[in-house]
Write a structure and sequence with these properties.
One of its GO terms (biological process) is mitochondrial respiratory chain complex I assembly. Keywords: Membrane, Mitochondrion, Mitochondrion inner membrane, Transit peptide. It is found in: Mitochondrion inner membrane. Its main location: mitochondrion. The chain is mainly α. It has 16 helices and two strands. The protein has a two-stranded antiparallel ribbon. Helix 6 packs antiparallel against helix 8, helix 9 packs across helix 10 and helix 12 crosses helix 14. The radius of gyration is 21 Å and the shape is globular. 42% of the residues are buried.
Length: 392
């Protein structure tokens, strides 16, 4: 029976100056340019010829929409945009490229140390670290030390990723939302900081858009996690840390409460793939929550544009880093100006997530459908249209 995602859901079935000088003395412009090129190329979509099913060759598609949509990010924040997304890709790949949880934890500690060194002006010889340090220093210089990239937010991304190294299940859909807030929403907060932007309204929009993007990313990666590619032959253990037997063990990263409601069992998915009974129902329920966050963001934008209150309070107001020197009055022109300044950052993930959810709906919520892995060649045009009209 048909399921629909639309406007409504229906269903019928500060750094010291001496540190900055030390940084410039230690990193040549050639290294910065090389790091920028690496981070940009990392996000590109790369085709990989294979006789395997399409859902087994996802590892080469890192963040193609982010590569395309960087053109709409204000130039002064573009290095931060690339560095943050390359950092996110590198941290996310730890789970896919380690043979044992302990090794993964060591690599996560490496990234925590890398964050500290980059923000102190002495980056490691990692492209993402070099470009992150460049962006952090540039932000300090542009704002005379008044704005900075949050170390706490960067560490939150690493710590959250570390919690899911072994692909443990999300107990509830709410837990999946928390994961998305701590990763994808936080990535947007950091990008807004690089503008610089300190706006409760922009952060509020980023929270909803990030949740939608994070939930959709989990759905998009479900086939790869359920059917992971074999590890390199020199590995003696699989990606989950167990001994090699018949190959890596997959996992189904859908919230357990949703799986129970749909009557879906992990074993059935691992045996039957997309034809497992209840899988489409479970995917529909999770996709609906992602779509709900996009609907909320659009309603907020409409209210701000119309000079109205956004409609509800920001649930993270007063939390770590979510403190604002002077909140804009509700419905004020300053609010609208802030949203307009932040629009290029917010539109990208909102648009790419919306387009993917539309494709998922057309596939009747079969997350294994190969059309979901294909790049959207119309994305640049659609992004230009959305940016010009200020539509999410």
């Amino acid at each position: 029976m048909s399921r629909t995602l639309s406007c409504s859901i229906t269903r019928s079935r500060p750094i010291l100056t001496k540190c900055l000088r030390r940084y410039y003395a230690s990193v040549a412009s050639e290294e910065v340019n090389a790091a920028r090129s690496y981070c940009s190329n990392l996000l590109k979509y790369k085709f990989q010829c294979s006789s395997k099913p399409p859902y087994l060759i996802l590892s080469r598609q890192y963040d193609s929409p982010s590569f395309i949509l960087q053109a709409f990010v204000p130039p002064q924040a573009r290095d931060a945009y690339l560095a943050l997304r390359a950092f996110n890709v590198d941290v996310a790949r730890v789970a896919d490229t380690t043979s044992h949880p302990t090794v993964g934890q060591i690599r996560m500690q490496f990234w925590r140390d890398t964050i500290t060194s980059s923000l102190s002006g002495t980056p490691r010889k990692e492209p993402a670290a070099i470009l992150l340090a460049t962006a952090a220093e540039d932000l300090q210089r542009r704002t005379n030390g008044q704005s900075r990239l949050s170390k706490n937010w960067l560490l939150k991304i690493v710590n959250t990723r570390e919690q899911y190294l072994g692909n443990p299940p999300y107990p509830t859909l709410g837990d999946l939302e928390i994961y998305s807030e701590n990763t994808y929403s936080t990535l947007l907060y950091l990008t807004l900081q690089a503008l610089p932007m300190n706006s409760v309204t922009a952060d509020h929009l980023a929270s909803h858009i990030g949740k939608a993007a994070g939930i959709s990313a989990v759905l998009r990666g479900l086939p790869l996690v359920a059917f992971p590619p074999p590890p390199p032959t020199h590995h003696s253990s699989n990606a989950k840390g167990g001994p090699m037997s018949d190959g890596p063990q997959g996992a189904v990263l859908l919230p357990l409460d949703i799986m129970a409601e749909a009557g879906l069992q992990e074993e059935q998915v691992l045996r039957q793939g997309g034809s497992a009974p209840g899988l489409r129902d479970a995917v529909f329920a999770v996709a609906t929550r992602a779509n709900d966050h996009l609907i909320t963001a659009r309603e907020m934008l409409k209210n701000v544009t119309g000079g109205k209150d956004v409609g509800h309070e920001f649930e993270h107001l007063g939390d770590e880093e979510h403190t604002y020197a002077s909140e804009a009055e509700e419905g004020s022109s300053k609010q609208l100006q802030e949203v307009d300044q932040a629009f290029g950052v917010l539109m990208g993930p909102a648009l790419s997530t919306s387009l993917w959810l539309e494709k998922l709906q057309k596939a009747d919520f079969d997350v294994f459908d190969p059309t979901l892995r294909r790049p959207d060649w119309k994305l640049p045009w659609k992004a230009y249209w959305a940016y010009s009209r200020r539509n999410l």
